[in-house]
Amino acid sequence: MTVTCTIENNIAEVTMHNPPVNAITVGDTWKIYEIFTEFSANADLRAVILTAEGKGFNAGIDIKEMQANKAAGDEWKLMTSSGEACYHAFHAIYETPVPVIAAVNDFCMGLGVGLVGSCDIIVASTKARFGLPEVDNGALGCASHLAKLVPPMKLREMSLTCKPATAAELHAWGSVAYLTEPEDLMPKARELAKMLSAKPAAAVKFAKAALNHIDVHEMHSNYRLEQGYTYQLNIMGEGSKQRNAFVEGTRLITRG
Q1: Residue 110 covered by a domain
Q2: Contact 61, 167 (CB under 8 A)
Q3: CB neighbours (10 Å) of residue 189?
Q4: For the chain, which end, N or C, has fewer CB atoms within 10 Å of the first or last residue's CB respectively?
C-alpha cells in the first residue's frame, strides 16, 4: 500500500508515495478515507499532516489503472469506485475533528486539489503548482475544492484551460498559509502541528466544527454535481477517448 500513517506525540502524518509521480490508485484513495475516518475515534489526536514523498504531491487519479481495467472489461466498475472513493475521502478529511495541514511538496493536480482543498491549512513548497487537468482528460472534478483556493475568475481560467497556478500565487491570494523552500516544508508543517496541539484541545475541535458549519463553500454537494457531468461524458465516450489518448501519448498535455 502506498499510503502510510504514523502517529507521534498525538500528531498524525499521512504520507502518499506512489512513484513515479504519485498518481493515486482507487485502492489508495479508499485507504485515505479509512485512515481519516479512524481519526474520528482517536480522542488523543491533536493535529494531522497530509503530505507526500517523491516527485509530486499528487498527480491525480491513476489514468493508466483506469484504462487497464477497461481492457479487462471493468472500466465502469472501477470508475464508479473511483468516484465514490474520492467523494468519501475528501469528506473524511474535511470532517476530521482536528486541524488537517496539507504539506504540498511539488505539483498538486486533479484529485490532489480535492485532498488539499479539504484540509484546514496549507503549507507549500516554492516548487508546488496546483491545477485541474480534468478537461484535457475528458472529465470534470475538484473545481468545487479549487474554488476555496483561487479567485472566481481564476477558477474559470484554470478549469477551462487546465493551466496550473504556482504556490506563490496561492500564497499571495491567502490560500497557502506558509510558503517555504523545499527543505523547510516538513519542518514548518511539524512546527505548525506542534503549535496547534499545544492549544486547548476541546476549543480547537469546537472551532473547527464551527468553521465547517459556517463554510460558504458547499464542496460536498457541488463535487457530486461535477461527478454527474463526468459520468455523462463517460456515457458519451468522451472520457475514455481522452484517457486512451493520454495512455497512448497522443494527447497534448497542458503545461504551466
Answers
A1: yes
A2: no
A3: 27
A4: N
Residue 253 covered by a domain: no
- What is the domain count for the chain? 1
Residue 222's CATH number:
3.90.226.10
- C-alpha separations of 140 from 116, 160, 179, 190, 227 in Å: 17, 10, 28, 33, 7
56 in any annotated domain:
yes
Quote the distance between the C-alpha of residue 51 and its chain's center. 10
Residues 6+ apart with CB under 8 A from 120: 99, 100, 101, 208, 211
Using alpha carbons, list the distances in angstroms from residue 29 to 6, 32, 33, 212.
17, 5, 7, 22
Take residue 103 and report the three cell numbers written for it: 504539506
The H-or-E segment that residue 192 falls in is: helix 185-197
Residues spanned by the domain of 90: 3-183+202-248
